[in-house]
Amino acid sequence: MPESDAPHCMRILLLNQCFYPDHVSSAQHLTDLALGLVEAGHEVTAVASSRGYDDPDKRYPVHESWRGVTIHRIWTPGLGKTAKWRRILDFATFWINATLILLRLRRFDVTVCLTSPPLISSLGTLMAALKGGAVVPWVMDLNPDEAVAAGWLKAGGLAERIMSTLQGWSFHRAARIVALDRFMAERLKAKGVREEVIHVDAPWSHDDAVRYNEAGRTAFRTKHGLTGKFVVMYSGNHSPCHPLDTLLEAALALGSNEDVHFLFVGGGSEFAKVKAFRATHELGNITTLPYQPLAELSASLSSADLHVVVMGAPFVGMVHPCKIYNILTLGLPFVGIGPEECHLADLALRLPDPRYALVARHGQAAALAFLIETAAQGGALPPSEDLRVLGREYGAGTLRPRLVKVIEDAARP
Question: Among 29, 187, 338, 384, which residue has the fewest nearby CB atoms (within 10 Å)?
């Protein structure tokens, strides 16, 4: 069944560094959107990198037709994230080669731009200005705000002023802008974006791929030596925007508790720091694993007794804790580490059983260790229907059709 009652087929461009078959969050969400647009009867083209996001040695075909989506992939040197200049050169190469590809392509009715590399929506807006068509930025992270908050850019410096100018030009020409939560919407309005242009919806859970899996839980725990342990899991992108210092210090404080084990799954620039922390302190209660394939995600996530979701205080409204939605779908307990005012706190307030929605603050490792140890003493909790009900509000079946309609409406006069 089509997800929309669109009157005619539209030509839609999706522009982002990551796309199928990459497994990082933005790639998965954009791929989901592409398939939803194809199901709605539209002609979909994606322009993305030919290299894996976390593993630049992984290469994808330069041209591919996949499930009705035409994919053009861009060559970049794949220098990695170990130094700022490497990232900048990779981003610059993406911009240049993306420009060459987009100049060759025909006009699109709508261009949907995500936010990797930073300010890629400006390129989409420039191409739309040259050829026509509407632009819909899907703001997965807000730059240069995030770069300033992380200390990568100097506030008021030349680079920040240029990026802010480009961002403002792009946002003010957008037909619609998709913000991920109320905090991001407020930041956009503070930048002068009209309220009626902003559509607020979170990135959806992968509810077609993620289910609580008891058999998978048992097999995963057995495979990784976690049987009989109370497993505290952080799964996903390990980013400076979601600082793990408090969680790591709590793991250190609980190093002598043989019943509690900390499992870090994923990748990102901070993943190496987790490994270094474990090695430096010789902690046997920490295990690190790479990203798990989507087919094994249910087993991996189901193996946790307590999930951890982190929101860095300076980054509220700039990034979004997307991993929370898969956790809600599973119905498993979580602890949110973040400031008093953030999306995690909003969600926790909606859940009636406090055992399933713990709250901790950055810098309070002893308090977090106490929460974890208390939870472990209570034992593993069964999946909660209250969490699952809340999770359905953020499922792909609910949110993807809404975004498809936003994109379709953007192209209409």
Answer: 187
